[in-house]
UniProtKB/TrEMBL annotation:
This is DNA helicase RecQ. It comes from the Bacteria. One of its GO terms (molecular function) is DNA binding. Gene3D superfamilies: HRDC domain, P-loop containing nucleotide triphosphate hydrolases, Winged helix-like DNA-binding domain superfamily/Winged helix DNA-binding domain. It is an enzyme of class 5 (isomerase). InterPro entries: DEAD/DEAH_box_helicase_dom (IPR011545), DNA_helicase_ATP-dep_RecQ (IPR004589), DNA_helicase_ATP-dep_RecQ_bac (IPR006293), Helicase_ATP-bd (IPR014001), Helicase_C-like (IPR001650), HRDC-like_sf (IPR010997), HRDC_dom (IPR002121), HRDC_dom_sf (IPR044876). The lineage of its organism: Bacteria, Bacillati, Bacillota, Bacilli, Bacillales. PROSITE patterns: HELICASE_ATP_BIND_1 (PS51192), HELICASE_CTER (PS51194), HRDC (PS50967). It comes from Brevibacillus laterosporus LMG 15441. Its EC number is 5.6.2.4.
Length: 596
């Protein structure tokens, strides 16, 4: 116990010295404690939650090397660049290196020159590499993006399966830490089993990201929404996800022609194009990236201020991972989903196109419905997501689009009763559109064939359009009054709450539309500091956010530090960063404050 306390104290010191952060985030401390007390550990945190620090700090405390398995070269490069810029000896071994370079780095690693060595999983399949590794004193093995070991995960990489046998082959077994943002039970189970974690402690932490303002906008003209938003947030970095290549191309052309500096990314582009477009975004040369879900894994850019989903993604796991790419620096950022009911059809089409087992399809449908419920609920969005990821005690966030929506509450009890009653009389055997048609009194062939025109509920909502009724039904489903069967042609069923409403025991309140969202303005000093960061980044050939995060620059622009001691109190300014860039930033701040 004393040992752990000692370690923790040291860990906090290192966090301040190298990273310039005063405290661990929720979850980081638990995971680090677990590793330091010698346990294999599985840490599940959302994207942007701060997984890297969970193994980087122990790496600095352990005597030997920390070997990090990382799935993407770009991800490794970013991490190693960031570590080196903080003064931590780290390197990467990947396929971009020559045989000679690999030998040299391995020998340096054996000689104790590096604390962290990043490798791609494919390395583990090389016999020669495994032999070389036997000579290395490995204290900790960190498996990043650990869901890649599972076929249930979205990025299955067979080479991850070689991790367990590597661990077994080492003379001294290192502690193993696995990290991922995927929290489904199947994936969790697979990681523990396939990586052979010994008595692995599992921590699911910090899925709540307080700085993300979640919002869903229904029925918007998507193009003009995006145009207005990008224009209003000119100069800020953002990602816009669309579900097809065609949609990406169209939106890209549209915004480009309107004079915005935008980039695009999808699997239909050549590798060179993809790399250069990605770099342009990372280096702040273009502000907005329009992309399919092919973009993002391994994107560490911390100053993404907004993520807009032009279409609804296939499930909440994918949504939260993509949306989570906003605000990794902890700064207030927006995640807006533009929902249209036809998105559900597109996703169903994708599910049907995939050659999957029936069991898998059923699961995909279930996840799709949870996603579409998210788009329709008027409950707290953050709470909805946290409950989905297994936290039943999540509180309302108070900041999402639904919590801050001060639109009037409307009593919709009577409409709800009409709908429930109609569903009941149709014996709970039809979909939302058919129910709406009966309520509207449609003389559609199918409606007449089934004899629904004789029902007392036939035509009792003829003042509404079919679309309005369908939307109301969907909303009642999202609120849990009714449910849909999980199949390709889902049927509407009544839940317990609907029965209470029918009996007059519960009322139904419905909220109206949300207001447009506006960001707060940045100060002039912040813009000047950002310019300086860009100049330094170009000089050093690094992405700007590797120099300092937006949050660090913003704090600088608020505190206006003109001496070393004050500068070191800014979050994100550690000793090494001070040595490298401190003077330049002090000079810049001083010049500004003298002019002001
Ligand atoms: P993940 O890998 O979980 O997506 P990262 O490890 O890239 O997330 O961390 C996300 C961001 O949060 C990074 O910019 C990192 O510097 C920052 N961060 C991590 N831990 C802390 C902390 N304790 N205090 C402040 N910022 C932190």
């Amino acid at each position: 116990m004393v040992m752990i306390m000692l370690h923790l104290h040291q860990a906090e010191e290192l966090l301040q010295r190298y990273y310039g952060y005063p405290a661990f985030r929720q979850g980081q401390q638990q995971i680090i404690e677990s590793i330091l007390s010698g346990h294999d550990t599985l840490g599940i945190m959302p994207t942007g939650g701060g997984k890297s620090i969970c193994y980087q700090i122990p790496a600095l405390l352990f005597d030997g090397i920390t070997l990090v398995i990382s799935p993407l070269i770009s991800l490794m490069k970013d991490q190693v660049d960031a570590l080196v810029s903080m003064g931590v000896p780290a390197t990467q071994i990947n396929s971009s290196l020559s045989y000679h370079e690999v030998q040299e780095r391995m020998s340096d690693a054996r000689g104790g020159r590096y604390k962290l060595v990043y490798i791609a999983p494919e390395r583990l399949e090389s016999e020669q590499f495994r032999e070389m590794i036997q000579e290395m004193p490995i204290s900790l093995l960190a498996v990043d993006e650990a869901h890649c070991v599972s076929q249930w995960g979205h990025d299955f990489r067979p080479s991850y399966l070689a991790v367990a046998s590597l661990v077994q082959s080492l003379r001294t077994r290192p502690i193993v830490v696995a990290l991922t943002a995927t929290a489904t039970p199947e994936v969790k189970e697979d990681i523990c089993r396939l990586l052979a974690l010994q008595e692995g402690q599992v921590f699911v932490t910090g899925f709540g990201r307080d700085n993300l303002m979640l919002a869903v906008r229904r029925g918007e003209d998507r193009r003009s929404f995006v145009f207005d938003y990008v224009t209003a947030n000119h100069g800020q970095a953002g990602i816009i996800y669309a579900s097809t290549r065609k949609e990406v191309e169209n939106l890209y052309e549209f915004l480009r022609q309107k004079g915005h500096r935008v980039g695009k990314y999808h699997a239909g582009l050549s590798e060179d194009e993809r790399i250069s477009n990605q770099d342009a975004f990372l280096f702040d040369d273009v502000n907005v990236m329009i992309a399919t879900n092919a973009f993002g894994m391994g994107i560490d850019k911390s100053n993404v201020r907004y993520v807009i989903h032009y279409n609804m993604p296939k499930n909440l796991e994918a949504y939260y991972q993509e949306a989570g790419r906003a605000g990794r620096d902890g700064e207030r950022s927006e995640c807006i989903l533009l929902f249209q009911a036809q998105d559900i059809q597109t996703q169903k089409y994708f599910i049907e196109q995939n050659e999957q087992t029936d069991e898998r399809k059923e699961q995909d449908y279930k996840k799709l419905y949870a996603m579409s419920d998210y788009c329709r609920t008027s409950r707290c969005l953050q709470q909805y997501i946290l409950e989905y990821f297994g936290d039943p005690h999540a509180k309302e966030c108070g900041t999402c689009g639904n919590c801050t929506d001060d639109a009037e509450l409307i009593d919709s009890t009577v409409e709800a009763q009409k709908i429930f009653s109609c569903v009941k009389r149709m014996k709970e055997r039809f979909g939302a559109v058919m129910v709406a048609q009966v309520l509207r009194g449609s003389s559609n062939k199918k409606v007449l064939q089934f004899g629904f025109s004789a029902l007392p509920t036939y035509g009792i909502m003829k003042d509404y359009t079919e679309k309005e009724i369908v939307e109301m039904i969907q909303w009642l489903i999202a609120e849990g009054y009714m449910s849909l069967t999980e199949s390709q042609y889902p049927v509407v069923m009544l839940g317990e709450r609907a029965v209470r409403v029918l009996k007059g025991e519960e009322q139904v309140w419905h909220k109206q539309r949300a207001k447009p969202i506006k960001r707060q303005e940045d100060s002039q000093l912040f813009d000047i500091l950002r310019q300086l960061r860009k100049t330094i980044a170009e000089r050093e050939g690094l992405p700007p956010y590797v120099i300092f995060h937006d949050s660090t620059l913003r704090e600088m622009s608020e505190i206006v530090p003109t001496d070393k001691a004050t500068m070191l109190t800014i979050k994100g300014v550690g000793e090494a960063k001070w040595e490298k860039y401190g003077e330049e930033f002090i000079a810049c701040v001083t010049e500004y404050s003298q002019k002001a």
